[in-house]
Amino acid sequence: MPKVTVNLKLLEVSANALALIYAACRQCYSEQFAGDIFDQIKDDPVKQAAFIKKIISSGHESPLEHVKFTFAIQGVSRALTHQLVRHRLASYSQQSQRYVKEKDFDYIIPPAIEQNNLALDEFKKIMDLIQKSYSKLSLLLAGDGKSGEIANQDVRFVLPQAAETKIIVTMNCRELIHFFKQRCCTRAQWEIRHLAQMMLEVCQKNLPAVFSEAGAKCMALGFCPEGEKFCCGKFAPRGVEKNK
Ligand SMILES: Cc1cc2nc3c(=O)[nH]c(=O)nc-3n(C[C@H](O)[C@H](O)[C@H](O)COP(=O)(O)OP(=O)(O)OC[C@H]3O[C@@H](n4cnc5c(N)ncnc54)[C@H](O)[C@@H]3O)c2cc1C
Asked: For a substitution probing ligand 1, which of 89, 171, 172, 180 has the most ligand atoms within 8 Å of its CB?
């Protein structure tokens, strides 16, 4: 049962992403047909980027919904994906614990536990025990003639939230910006924040006109809405004028 770390791979971004968003923006204000606009400006990324930045800063975000990113993610915990799938304006396909038997499950070790030798020993001990119980329960159910997903769907009840999983997620740019606002914030749990930061870097590299200013919600607001108690100090809390 080796410890694993996150692996993020961008599978696909909508083709002609910039031109697509630009045509969608322009359609709102132009007498022209977006089909013609799209063909005319496909090769003028500088003009498109400038226009798109202006539109985003004005809060007109729906044209961003036409472009989507698909990521493959592995080496994350079930605790992370439980949080990820709360984002409803997205599509997911996750490795099943019914169809895939956890013969020797990998797991994620939280850094705070990893840095404490006694805690780390305890953590590994319980992971080991769980694997043993999982395998024993599988054998016991096999004795009752239950195997495959029929057994797996019940035996998985003993698996921990630390168990490693794999998931594909597709989000459009508007939802990604929203996701980054929530999950790049230091109030977000460390594992999903780390993943969100990795996704943000990929998005910024692929589509800077849309994502250069994206990040935790304070980035767009210019202040921290979490209040003084939870403020990380990057921006001053709401109502406090000067940055810390
Ligand atoms: C730091 C942090 C702590 C959290 N703690 C908890 C917790 O303790 N318990 C818990 O249950 N959850 C918790 N959450 C999850 C959180 O409540 C949201 O469910 C999750 O972040 C998804 O965000 P969302 O609903 O804004 O976005 P998405 O589902 O990504 O939707 C995007 C936006 O679409 C709109 N929208 C989507 N669906 C609807 C709808 N049905 N009706 C109206 N508008 C809609 C909203 O404007 C929404 O913001 C936490 C999240 C964070 C970041």
From this structure: 89
Torsion angle, CA of 123/125/127/128, rounded to 10 degrees?
160
Q: Mutate which of 88, 181, 194 to test ligand 1's pocket (most atoms within 8 Å of Cβ)?
A: 88
What confidence tens digit (pLDDT) does each residue in 74-121 have?
Answer: 999 999 999 999 999 999 999 999 999 988 999 999 999 999 999 999
CA dist., res. 17 & res. 63, Å (int): 11
**Residue-wise pLDDT tens digits, 129-153:** 999 999 999 999 999 999 999 999 9
Q: Is 77:135 a contact under the CB 8 Å cutoff?
A: no
202 and 222 both lie in a single domain: no
> Does one domain contain both 208 and 244?
no
141 and 199 housed in the same domain? no
> How far is Cα 171 from Cα 50, in angstroms, rounded to an integer?
23
One-letter amino acid of 140: L
Strands (E) across 78-221 are located at 90-94, 164-172
Give a yes or no: residue 11 inside a domain.
Answer: yes
Task: Show which residues are catalytic.
Answer: 183
